[in-house]
Design goal:
This protein is of the alpha/beta class. It has one domain: NAD(P)-binding Rossmann-like Domain (Rossmann fold), CATH 3.40.50.720. Helices cover 28% and strands 17% of the residues. The chain is built from 6 helices and 10 strands, in the order E-H-E-E-H-E-H-E-H-E-E-E-H-E-H-E. It has an 8-stranded mixed β-sheet with strand order 3-2-1-4-5-6-10-8, covered by helices on one side. Strands 7-9 form a two-stranded parallel sheet. Helix 1 packs across helix 6, helix 2 packs across helix 3 and helix 3 packs parallel to helix 4.
């Protein structure tokens, strides 16, 4: 059993993390702006803090984080631009302000655009059209990379509210796209590499429930995913569907 603190527990991914964490017997606390949005059936099983993460002082947030084994941040959205970057910085700074022995394992949420595209030396956030929206993933990854924290950055493609396949069935990769990329991709100009990247996105459309399960399965300090970007893909041969995926390569967050 772990002492977990979940940020953004009323969102699509946060609700899945919350439900699975409670079912697994973890001791769970949540930070939410509107506690009324929490499932009524779970409120008696968790500790609830009504907090606006966009305004809370770093010292106050650090006090709430202290005493937990793991922090899972599901708050924020990449389309919020600088506000998403500022939110990530506020959370990271709060954990950094704690003594090293008090700092929890931390999970943060990015998107597939933050991953390396095979061995090309490039990432989705550097490609035409993608960087205009998904640049916060680059800034947030840079912030984490400069931090001493024991962090993991989940980088799925678009996520969907569909039945879980089971986390064990997913393809999981660190730092690179979790799907094959041809060797010649490194020689492609940006527009063609963008088309290749977009063609891989359907394989990376995963259920929220499976993304949550991956996070909850890796809560031990300095495990194999520590300080890595973590990509997720469906089993070989499967392709997901999401109405807006073509306009949103690189993740729904």
């Amino acid at each position: 059993m772990k002492r977990l603190l979940i940020l953004g527990a009323t969102g699509s991914l946060g609700r899945q993390v919350l439900q699975q964490a409670v079912a697994a017997g973890h001791q769970v606390a949540v930070l939410v702006r509107n506690p009324a949005k929490l499932p009524a059936t779970l409120r008696s099983h968790i500790t609830v803090h009504a907090v606006d993460l966009g305004r809370v002082a770093i010292a106050a947030l650090a006090d709430l984080i202290r005493g937990h084994d793991a922090l899972i941040n599901c708050a924020g959205h990449v389309t919020e631009g600088q506000a998403f970057v500022d939110l990530m910085d506020r959370i990271v700074s709060s954990v950094e302000s704690l003594a090293p022995a008090e700092r929890p394992v931390c999970w943060f949420l990015g998107g597939a655009a933050a991953l390396d595209i095979g061995q090309t030396g490039r990432r989705g956030v550097e490609l035409p059209k993608v960087r205009a929206t998904y640049w916060p993933h680059r800034k947030n990854f840079e912030r984490l990379s400069a931090s001493p924290l024991d962090w993991r950055l989940l980088c799925p493609g678009p996520m969907v509210d569909q039945p879980a396949l089971g986390a064990a069935s997913l393809r999981v990769a660190t730092d690179q796209l979790p799907v094959p990329v041809p060797a010649l991709a490194g020689k492609l100009p940006g527009p063609l590499l963008l088309l290749l990247f977009a063609s891989k996105v359907p394989q990376m459309i995963v259920p929220y429930a499976d993304a949550a399960a991956v996070m909850l399965a890796h809560l031990e300090p300095r495990d194999a995913l520590s300080r890595h970007r973590v990509g997720l893909a469906l089993p070989v041969g499967m392709r997901g569907k999401k109405d807006t995926w073509a306009a949103q390569p690189g993740g729904s967050t």
